[in-house]
Amino acid sequence: MNKIKKGALLIAEPFLKDPDFQRSVVLICEHQREGTFGITINKPIDIAIATLGEGLDAYKNPIFNGGPVNREHIHFLHVFPNLIPGGELINDTIYWGGDFEIATQLIQKQEIDPDGIKFFIGYSGWGEGQLKKEMHEKSWLLTTATKDIVFHTPPRKIWENAVKKLDDDFHHIINYPLDPSFN
Q1: What is the domain partition of the chain in residue ranges?
Q2: For the segment 123-169, what is each residue's pLDDT rounded down to a tens digit?
Q3: Exposure pattern of 19-34 as b/e (b: 16+ CB <10 Å)?
Q4: Looking at the domain that runs over 8-182, which CATH code has it been given?
Q5: pTM for this one?
Q6: Are 47 and 121 in contact (CB under 8 A)?
Q7: Which of 169, 124, 132, 93 has its CA nearest to residue 2?
């Protein structure tokens, strides 16, 4: 894949220094001429979701840093369009958002598999032309999102597994150190 679009995964190149995006994988949820909205899917944070809203104390999975923008908002991805209305189809069976109250009720009543829903604080965003410029600078690689990578891969392996979806020519970057001076 070489086109930025909804449902794409942005894979940070191995030496990207920005601490918000170092070895990050970002799911693109919306891409328009005016800008791009995505959620970083592989950066768990140490926060109890119960502190973020009522009814979420039954959710025991990690919460993720969705990105450096608007960290006072909660976003979620899920695979339950028939149970959580209002979600936007991102790719195949991956949905972004929907009725937050219904989602929390379903979690509280244990009526959905917690491995099919992920919560994020903040998001990743780019203004008009900004992401295209970063792509030109080779800060990001692109592949297609899959339910397996988004929901069923341990966070520490998401970047590596996303790189493995690329052509074999890219697989060697998995072994690159975070800082090339350590090589």
Answers
A1: 8-182
A2: 999 999 999 999 999 899 999 999 999 999 999 999 889 988 888 77
A3: eebebbbbbbbbbeee
A4: 3.40.1740.10
A5: 0.91
A6: yes
A7: 132
